[in-house]
Write a structure and sequence with these properties.
Layout (H helix, E strand, L loop, with lengths): L2 H20 L1 H7 L4 H24 L6 H24 L12 H24 L1 H4 L4 H29 L3 H6 L1 E6 L2 H13 L4 E8 L8 E2 L2 E5 L4 H8 L3 E4 L6 H13 L3 E4 L17 E2 L15 H8 L3 E5 L4 H12 L4 E6 L2 H14 L5 E5 L5 H11 L3 E4 L6 H6 L1 H21 L4 E7 L8 H16 L6 E7 L1 E3 L5 H10 L4 E3 L5 E2 L1 E3 H14 L4 E5 L5 E2 H11 L10 E3 L18 E4 L5 E5 L5 H17 L2 H11 L8
Parallel strand pairs: 1-2, 1-5, 2-4, 5-6, 8-9, 8-11, 9-10, 11-12, 12-13, 13-18, 14-17, 15-20
Antiparallel strand pairs: 3-4, 6-7, 16-19, 18-22, 21-22
Helix pairs in contact: 3-4, 3-7, 4-5, 5-7, 13-20, 15-17, 17-18, 17-22, 19-21, 22-23
């Protein structure tokens, strides 16, 4: 056993047994109600000792009679002055176990001010007090600083090293922290003050800058390649990744290294998600698939979005769905005058309403069970509530299912959108935001072509009324109802296999909050007639998602859980696209939002197309409806 490990062992076992035996902490807690008085008296005692010892050091242990008299006369004055300035700086109230640099600064201020005040008084009243030697001021300053700071850090040291009993140390999980020193330090500090379930044994710094040093007596190892050796040496149980902005390739490398060592990996969330920009031990969570996907960090213009939403009547369709419910949560943060939630699935609407009322009691909500397919009903609803901003998130989105139900897809995605548009124009809505999908680009599915037609229709409306019509287009949403991730997780919980349609199939992914934040940003930016395309990073192979999910579950994709390929489904593409043929990609003021530029047909043409689609839907004439889709969108691949 190395010297350092021997030292740690002796410290954690024998020292803690001793502290347990004398019950120091229990003794302290008995005096807790009188804590401030005890601390004040303790400081006064330190001031007395420091002042007397200053003379003792100045005169090398033999204080002359004249100076002894000066010391006795000025001692009460010194104690009163120092006691006053320490009280003025609230130094009798701090919790010593959390002492830090700010406390030291206050102690230095209080000490220097007390010495300056004493010097001024001594100069003015030297006839009565005598002349205090100048060196005594300096020595006393140093002693007061040493005694007051030292006592605090001594308490903090014992709190950090004896807050766990020997049995608790044996039961605690041995943790390796991975991350830059600055990011890991707050987490280490909290582990030593509150984290009785965790015992940090090492910090792995991705850089080599601090390798070989120690922090809180925890050794710092350099470079993530040292994870395996560190885990074996310290017999670690778990890794906490205190590296919120870790590059994607490094994160994947760490996951792979930890998998080989059979270490559970947990992570702190990005600082942007944390209240006040700091994370705590309670924020540490398991790594999710979302953490491993290559997506750019999201930022939005909070101040302008607040001004855009605040005190406005806002209506959201599909308010019980994945995107709609998150839209409602985010909009509620910006204090709308009221939020009208339109949804026909009553259970989803009820669940969302309960959550929103709990978290935003000051916001007025109007949850309404209604269908966008009811044109007259939508017009009456809009007339009643007079919304100023509309987010249209209601849609049928499941590709294989809509291949079998083209009538319903057209009825909801196309004709339902027209119902909303007419209702919005009638009450002069300011902004109408339609949520679209990358499947509307060069569509090969019924769902995609219906969203494409809805996009073109909405775009053609711009300039024909005071309402600004805006469209946002993005890809798959992680974790949404019916998406691939929940399916994979269910299959994984059943022991596999995980089903993928094709080994090369790729999709763009965003999380629900990421997509909704950018939708709000696009709504604020839109001037009318815009089709905004959200930047979702690079597309990801579904096969890779399945493999990463298996690895996160602590399994081997090749041995423990198999992946089965079932074949491309009707209407499915191997690769999704973001821009139609003939559309130009134009950048905007926001780096994560682009604009698709294209020529739109006249509103009269689109109204005629939609009238014919409405007639075919009423007749339930599927072959003619599919032919009509092909006529409107020539590059649509008609499924026969």
């Amino acid at each position: 056993m190395s010297f350092q490990r021997t030292k740690n062992y002796l410290h954690s076992h024998f020292m803690i047994k001793f502290l347990d035996k004398i019950n120091v902490l229990n003794l302290f807690y008995r005096f807790a109600p009188y804590r401030r008085t005890v601390i004040a008296l303790f400081h006064l005692m330190l001031f007395v000792v420091a002042y007397v010892f200053s003379y003792f050091l100045r005169f090398e242990g033999s204080i002359p009679e004249d100076y002894y008299q000066i010391m006795i006369v000025t001692l009460p004055l010194v104690v009163i002055i120092q006691g006053f300035f320490f009280a003025y700086h609230d130094l009798y109230q701090g919790l010593w176990r959390y002492v830090g640099f700010a406390d030291v600064q206050n102690i230095i201020r209080a000490t220097l001010l007390s010495m300056i005040t004493l010097l001024a008084i001594n100069l003015g009243f030297s006839k009565y007090l005598g002349n205090i030697p100048r060196s005594v001021y300096v020595i006393n300053c140093l002693l007061v600083l040493s005694f007051t700071c030292g006592s605090r850090f001594l308490v903090r040291h014992f709190r950090q090293t004896s807050f766990m009993s020997s049995s608790e140390i044996r039961e605690a999980k041995k943790i390796i922290l991975i991350g830059p020193l600055a990011a890991a330090e707050p987490l280490l500090r909290e582990m030593f003050t509150h984290g009785k379930d965790y015992f940090p044994v090492a910090l792995v710094d991705p850089s080599l800058e601090h390798r070989g040093n120690r922090i809180f007596d925890v050794p710092i190892k350099g470079g993530i390649q040292s994870i395996s050796e560190t885990a074996k040496r310290f017999e670690a149980h778990e890794v906490i990744l205190a590296w919120p902005d870790a590059p994607q390739d490094r994160l994947n490398e760490i996951i792979e290294l930890c998998k080989r060592c059979q270490l559970r990996v947990r992570i702190v969330p990005p600082l942007s998600e944390m209240l006040g920009g700091r994370y705590r031990l309670a924020d540490v969570r398991d790594i999710e698939l979302e953490d491993l996907l290559p997506r750019p960090p999201i930022y939005i213009d909070q101040e302008n979005i607040q001004a855009f939403i605040k005190d406005k009547m806002v209506l959201v369709t599909g308010a019980g769905g994945s995107i709609g419910s998150e839209l409602c949560r985010l909009i509620a943060r910006y204090n709308p005058a009221a939020l009208i939630m339109v949804e026909r699935a009553e259970n989803s609407l009820y669940t969302n309403e309960v959550i929103l009322r709990r978290h935003f009691p000051e916001v007025t909500f109007h949850p309404l069970v209604a269908s966008i397919n009811d044109g007259p009903g939508m017009e009456l609803l809009f007339q009643q509530f007079q919304p100023q901003i509309v987010f249209h998130a209601a849609a049928y989105k499941h590709v294989p299912l809509m291949e079998r139900c083209p009538i319903e897809a057209a009825y909801n995605n196309i004709l339902g959108t027209r119902n909303l548009v007419k209702a919005a124009i009638a009450v002069k809505v300011d902004h109408f935001m339609m949520i679209s999908t990358d499947k509307a680009v060069n569509p090969t599915s019924v769902m995609g072509v219906t969203k494409h037609i809805a996009e073109k229709y909405v775009q053609s409306l711009n300039g024909n009324s005071t309402t600004k019509f805006i469209i946002t287009r993005f890809g798959n949403v992680l974790g949404s109802a019916g998406s691939v991730i929940p399916l994979f997780k269910e299959q994984l919980s059943n022991g596999g296999p995980l089903t993928v349609t094709h080994p090369e199939i790729e999709r763009f992914f965003m999380t629900i909050p990421e997509a909704v934040q950018l939708v709000l940003q696009a709504a604020y930016m839109g001037q009318g007639g815009d089709i905004f395309v959200l930047n979702m990073g690079r597309s990801v192979k579904i096969r890779e998602l399945a493999e990463k999910l298996i690895i996160l579950a602590g399994k081997d994709p090749e041995k423990d859980i198999s992946i089965v390929y079932t074949g491309i489904r009707p209407g499915e593409k191997l690769f999704e696209e973001l821009f139609n043929e003939g559309e130009q990609n134009q950048s905007t003021s926001h780096s994560l939002i682009n604009r698709a530029i294209s020529n739109s047909s006249s509103l009269e043409n689109w109204e005629a197309h939609l009238d014919e689609i409405q007639d075919l839907v009423r007749k339930r004439d599927v072959p003619s409806l599919l032919t009509k889709f092909k006529e409107i969108v020539p590059n649509y691949c008609l499924i026969t």
